Amino acid sequence: MIKRKSTLAGLVGLILLLLLAACGGGGAGTAGEGADSPNPSPKTAEKPREPIELKIHAGGVSEEEFNKRFKNVLQSKFPHIKLVWMPSNGKGTTIQDYVASGDIPDIIRNISSTVQSNYLNLGLEYDMRELVKKYNYDLSRFNPIYLKGFIDLTSQNGELYGLPVSPFFSRVLYYNKDLFDKFGQPYLKDGMTWDEIYDIARKMTRVEDGVAYRGFSANVATFFTYNEYSLSTLDPEKDELSSFDTWKKMFDNYIRFYQIPNNEIRPTLAEEGAMFQKGTVAIHADIYSPYLDLSMLKNWDMVSIPIIEGAPKKIGTFPPGYLMITKQSKHKEEAFQVIMEMLSDEVQMTDARNGFLPTVNNKDMMSVLGQDSPVYKDKNMKAVGYYEFAPLRPVRAKGMTVIETNVADTILRNSFLDAALGKTDVNSALRKTDELLKQEVEKAKSRTK
């Protein structure tokens, strides 16, 4: 009896040892493919993806900038994709030129003011919604004013033709601290009014030792194209200038600066926009831009743009660019993957640190804006977003004849210049704007007949 029990116990022990050995062998294979096993199970090699080419045409962006911001990231993420840069400056390099030659890019970067002529009218439009759905891409991460504004501008039935890419531009006031020191004036601060700025501009405008110092200059386009009212030049629902009285209020507010003796506006808007860099202007109204070169000024800073009294306390902005896919592309999915990477949080955070305003809703990015920029790292970056950004200007209602917004805005700016130069009064300048806008609408109508 004792012998049988001993034999049974031995069998049970042997079975347990075998089970433990089996479990141990399986665990080693799972954790490290059998580091202690003489026969590790082979890994299945991932099949390399077929190499492809993606052509990119990015109007307004240099190849150097594209390479610095995006190329290394994209090549690391997509080694099978060869990115082919299509120049966008110089003879024969417009998107119309490429389309005419049959050399159509896969990805286009364009801005909202020319999207009609540079994309839609060329038959390039591709609705991204199917890819957004396939990749479960979160559109809510973007600032809604830039996504909604572009959809309203370009779509008939909610089509999504592009996604917003930095940069876009806020409005600020720049000031030359050396001149404020020279003339014993306290520095500007955020939240000032236009009346306060006007009084300072009057005090700072003078002639000393044969040098004419101006109190104020401006990039005039920022007054109107990026206004706090989000007011379009051409009325969205009528073939005429929108809101005559509101435009008159804006004209009157800004023209008074050019009526200060010795602070006259320059003969052209380009000359006026470049005056601050000369070092003899105290205050300059312009966009905040990582491209703006103020290296010739030794000591400058910026504050928030004033808001016209009674207007919404919002900053009008120059909209971002938009990344779009052409319907002729044979690699739409890969193009969408590239766009997603270009708009990723990682890329936009690096952009933000270098001074580019992000197109996504991310307070962390705004808090580090410009920290890695040699130009802006020591500047008052709170000025850039001191007020909430204004919605994009409304687009023409469905069925109304569309003209390019930059055409309408140029007419308005030229009328302002005439009034500021004293060639005409404000009311006459605005009536002329209205007449010229109507002529442009009639031209556009005749082209569609």
Please characterize this protein's 3D structure.
The protein is of the alpha/beta class and about 450 residues long. Helix content is about 40%, strand content about 15%. It is built from 16 helices and 12 strands. It has helices spanning about 1-30, 65-75, 95-100, 115-120, 130-135, 145-155, 175-180, 195-205, 220-225, 245-260, 270-275, 330-340, 345-355, 365, 405-420, 425-449, and strands spanning about 50-60, 80-85, 105-110, 165, 170-175, 205-210, 210-220, 280-285, 300-305, 315, 320-325, 390. The strands form 3 sheets. A 5-stranded mixed β-sheet has the order 2-1-3-11-4. A 5-stranded mixed β-sheet has the order 6-7-8-5-9. The protein has a two-stranded parallel sheet with strand order 10-12. Helix 15 (about 405-420) packs antiparallel against helix 16 (about 425-449). The radius of gyration is 30 Å and the shape is globular. The protein starts with a helix and ends with a helix.
Map the helices and strands:
Blueprint (H helix, E strand, L loop, with lengths): L1 H31 L19 E7 L4 H15 L3 E6 L8 H7 L5 E5 L3 H4 L10 H6 L9 H11 L8 E3 L5 E6 H6 L11 H11 L1 E3 L2 E8 L2 H4 L19 H15 L10 H5 L7 E7 L12 E5 L9 E2 L5 E5 L6 H11 L2 H9 L9 H5 L20 E2 L15 H16 L5 H23 L1
Helix pairs in contact: 15-16
List how many beta strands DSSP finds: 12
Radius of gyration: 30 Å
What is the multimeric organization of the chains shown?
single chain
| N→C terminal distance | 111 Å
List the uncertain runs: 1-43
Strand fraction: 5-15%
- Main sheet? 5 strands, mixed
The chain-level structural class is alpha/beta
